[in-house]
Every structure is written in structure tokens, then in C-alpha cells.
Amino acid sequence: MVWSNLDRVNNWVNATVKPLTDVEHWGVVERWSIPDDGYGDCEDYVLLKRRILMQAGWPREALLVTVVLKGKNEGHTVLTVTTDTGEPRPPLALPGQGARSARGPHLSSVRLP
To answer: φ, ψ for residue 39 (rounded to 5)?
Structure first.
């Protein structure tokens, strides 16, 4: 799969979906949903990125929904992409949300058969 496709999807979702907590959006603490109405929080961004990438031909098993800890042990969801070369890829996260770089302990690069 082509990295430029990955970057394009990541940038489009980050620019298109407006951040809104589940409490503000749905009136509940946690709800995972694809942000078809243009609003969502971190896991909703991830679900949309994953869906678009799978529709573009990326293998489902290469697109890992990953929950990491940031700040004061707050959960944050990112999309981790495994590669066929072992090349690390930074998690696809909301800009400025404190996700660590590809060298952080939450990202593994897996060589696919």
C-alpha cells in the first residue's frame, strides 16, 4: 500500500471531522461510532480512517485500533499501521493530542507474511 494514500486519508479525516466529546455529542461517557455527521472524538476518527483505508484496499489486519495512555493516564485511541517491511509508522492521531512518536512503546511494527 502507498504511504501517500495513508497520509492523505489521515489528513482528510483530521481536517474534516470536528472534535466533540461523547458527552457533548451523545450525552454518554463513551460511545464508539463512525462520525458520519462530522463530529467525534479520538476513537471515532480512528474508525473512519480505518474504514476508508480498508475501502481503499488496505488489509484489515494491518490497521490496528490502539489505545494508549497520555498525560495523566488518560486513554487515547490511535490507528497503528503495520507494514510489510518492518518500517515503523507513527500512529494516526488527532493533531496535538499527545500521542507519542513511532518510537514510543505503544507502537509496534509488524512484518506481514
So the answer is: -130, 145
Phi, psi of 83 (to 5 degrees): -125, 165
Decide if 67 is inside a domain. Answer: no
Q: In this structure, which amino acid lies at residue 34? A: I
Contact partners, residue 77, CB within 8 Å, separation at least 6: 42, 43, 45, 46, 65, 66, 67, 68
Q: Which domain holds residue 53?
A: 3-60
pTM for this one? 0.76
Residue 36 placed within a domain: yes
Residue type, 42: C
pLDDT in tens, 55-108: 999 999 889 898 888 888 888 898 888 877 666 565 555 443 433 333 333 333
In this structure, is residue 48 part of a structural domain?
yes
In a domain, 29, yes or no: yes
Considering its fold, how many domains does the chain have in total? 1
Give the integer Cα–Cα distance in Å for 23 and 77: 17
